[in-house]
Design goal:
It is a single chain. The chain contains 14 helices and 20 strands. By secondary structure, it is α+β, with helices and mostly antiparallel strands. The protein folds into three domains: 59 residues, 2-Layer Sandwich (Uridine Diphospho-n-acetylenolpyruvylglucosamine Reductase, domain 2), CATH 3.30.43.10; 111 residues, Uridine Diphospho-n-acetylenolpyruvylglucosamine Reductase, domain 3; 200 residues, FAD-linked oxidases, C-terminal domain (Vanillyl-alcohol Oxidase, Chain A, domain 3, 3-Layer(aba) Sandwich). The strands form five sheets. It has an eight-stranded antiparallel beta sheet, with helices on both faces. A five-stranded antiparallel beta sheet has the order 6-7-11-9-10. Strand 9 and strand 10 form a beta hairpin. Helix 10 runs antiparallel to helix 11.
């Protein structure tokens, strides 16, 4: 147990000074930490990898970090089942799974999140036939405010559908069981294409690849596309210098410099946008799936992302790019496609979805830009990514989720006193009704 110190998220834009920070190393220490908090009348929030842009973690009560609960507990290679503690990062888990011939079916482009945090916020990758990461969970172990432990699994399907994407509102997740797939290799092609060509043939690109997405800038007629497909070719990882040049120099430092110039001289942003797409070139690689999925992201940004029906993708992208042209935005929007799933609070619940993410470089105004984009997304029945910025409240979110009431009822049953609440959860989920 540690006395008050400041906790800050990865981006440095969310921070709090909890009364106590607890760092349990197993589920028994976790239970004790929750008991101490409730006896002292403190609320409890949990930090995983800290890789969120929202104020969802912030508390002046007890903050529990799960960084020491990062072990793989059991791997059943024949069934593809991996049981692990909640604090292990996606990258750590991916490497351990690979050693046993297993992998996640899909991953996002960042792997430093904890498995519990990534799933609780509905984190996703790209692939129209593949749901978000939480759909791979077949069991979720949670510790409640009274110290009891409940397991959401296939024997309790309603609880599992709530626990997969829970925002930490039901209890503290201590462990999960992942349904993995046999390890596989991906062939990656990243190149530039005309925006209108991509949008005109969008269904062909989306349906014709295992994974497809693209980056588009407000002032450029070109987009940077990403296509990843399974292959039987053995991995041919790039040489270290080549990987550094692509992943670090181009993706991070050169891009960082371009954003910094755009912030200093906003009038140059249109030219910077066009230059970014013209010089990006074509990059090919064949490597282990988790290495292809994840890329280091070091540029200081903030982000908002929305899921809308796939059918509205092309029209929505054009409208968002029009908005981007009216704001000082040196950063691109990112477009990906994800299969439907059945988690109650999943942004892709019940519909094949297009995710559109907008970014803003640190030091540039993001609220007006994001606010305009959000209004467009709401016209399409959009649902925000729970780990990224948005301006919605429970009143406007509830109608967008068909199973909102089921989740709320389970929340009231599992946490009737609102021990795991904070101002963020009250704002986006509403108060607990005991």
């Amino acid at each position: 147990m540690q006395k008050p110190v400041q906790w800050t998220n990865f981006a440095g834009d969310q921070s709090c000074r909890p009364a106590v920070i607890e760092r349990p190393s197993d589920r028994f220490e976790l239970i004790s930490a929750i008991e101490r908090a409730t006896q002292a009348g403190r609320r409890v929030r949990v930090a995983g990898g800290g890789h969120s842009f929202t104020d969802g973690v912030l508390t002046d009560g007890t903050l529990i970090t799960l960084e020491q609960m990062n072990r793989v507990l059991d791997i059943d290679t024949s069934a593809g089942l991996v049981r692990c503690e909640a604090g292990i990062t996606l990258g750590e888990l991916s490497r351990e799974m690979w050693r046993h011939g297993l992998a996640f079916a899909n991953l996002g482009d960042i792997d430093v999140q904890s498995i519990a945090g990534a799933t609780a916020t509905g984190t996703h990758g790209a692939g129209v036939r593949l749901p978000n990461l939480s759909a791979s969970l077949i069991s979720v172990e949670m510790t409640l405010a009274d110290g009891s432990v409940v397991v959401a699994d296939r024997g309790r399907p309603e609880l599992l559908r709530a626990a997969r994407v829970s925002l930490g509102a039901l209890g503290v997740v201590s462990g999960v069981t992942v349904q993995a797939v046999p390890a596989f290799v991906l062939q990656s092609v990243e190149t530039t294409m005309p925006l209108e060509e991509v949008l005109a043939d969008l269904d062909e690109f989306v349906d014709g690849n295992d994974h497809f997405g693209f980056f588009a800038f407000g002032h450029s007629p070109l987009v940077m596309t990403k296509t990843w497909n399974r292959t039987d070719v053995p991995p041919r990882p790039p040489r270290r210098i080549q990987r550094w040049f692509t992943d670090e120099f181009i993706t991070n430092y050169a891009y960082w410099g371009a954003c910094a110039v755009g912030r200093a001289v906003p009038a140059w942003i249109p030219a910077i946008n066009r230059a970014c797409t013209r010089v990006s070139g074509t990059h090919r690689s064949v490597d282990r799936s988790y290495r292809v999925f994840a890329t280091p992201r070091r540029v200081p940004l903030t982000e908002m992302e929305y899921a809308i029906d796939r059918a509205d993708a092309a029209e929505a992208v054009r409208r968002v790019l029009d908005v981007a042209q009216r704001h000082p935005a040196p950063t691109p929007l990112e477009v990906r496609f994800v299969a439907a799933d059945d988690a109650y609070l999943s942004p892709a619940h019940g519909r094949t979805s297009c995710y559109i993410a907008v970014h803003q470089y640190r030091g540039l105004p993001w609220q007006p830009f994001f606010g305009e984009v959000e209004q467009i997304m709401m016209e399409y029945g959009g649902r925000p990514h729970w780990g990224k910025r948005h301006f919605r409240t429970a009143d406007t979110l509830a109608p967008a989720y068909p199973e909102w009431k089921r989740f709320s009822n389970l929340r009231s049953q599992l946490d009737p006193n609102g021990v795991f609440a904070n101002p963020h959860l009250t704002r986006v989920l509403g108060p607990v009704h005991s």
